[in-house]
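Exercise 7b. Backbone tokens:
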């Protein structure tokens, strides 16, 4: 299960790139102590925190799943999805499709329980994103503006825009997020 492999995946990505905890701490904005706790399974980071760590390592959150599970596939059955539970965020993230390190397209399903959020503050992504509210409703803070999105609504979020998701309803919400590296 990915929860058990999260710390190992972080350590593997970091050591493959020959990045010390201190250097990763400087690049991600977290302390080396916090990153060590994540590697040892003693800390549960938020979605936003995991995105910052992945970005500092030059990978997306979806690619992080690939490294955690050591696999990628063109077909992923619902029962075989890699899942990552994030206690702090009251969230679960599922990898819906990762073609490998050379791909520019990644898809995840974010599930937020009532009161759940992606992070304390809006954070930007280096990728362009398309978000679709598959089930429930969520508030998207995009830069400084709040937008209530209901089932069937969607949003296009350009790279660099600060965004944060939160579930202010009494029911779980599911958000499909497809991200792509911007054209260079």
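Sequence design result:
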């Amino acid at each position: 299960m990915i929860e058990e492999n999260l710390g190992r995946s972080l350590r593997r990505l970091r050591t493959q790139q020959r990045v010390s905890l201190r250097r990763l701490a400087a690049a991600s904005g977290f302390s080396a102590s916090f990153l060590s706790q994540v590697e040892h399974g003693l800390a549960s980071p938020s979605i936003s925190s995991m995105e910052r760590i992945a970005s500092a390592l030059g990978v997306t959150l979806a690619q992080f799943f690939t490294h955690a599970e050591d696999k990628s596939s063109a077909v992923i059955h619902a029962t075989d999805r890699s899942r990552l539970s994030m206690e702090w965020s009251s969230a679960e993230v599922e990898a819906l499709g990762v073609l490998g390190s050379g791909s520019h397209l990644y898809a995840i399903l974010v599930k937020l329980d009532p009161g759940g959020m992606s992070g304390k503050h809006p954070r930007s992504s280096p990728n362009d994103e398309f978000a679709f509210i598959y089930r429930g409703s969520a508030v998207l803070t995009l830069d400084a503006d709040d937008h209530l999105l209901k089932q069937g609504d969607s949003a296009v979020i350009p790279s660099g825009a600060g965004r944060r998701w939160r579930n202010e309803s009494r029911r779980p919400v599911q958000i499909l997020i497809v991200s792509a590296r911007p054209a260079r």
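Instructor comment: The two ends are 36 Å apart (CA to CA). The domain at 2-180 is CATH 2.60.120.10 (Jelly Rolls).
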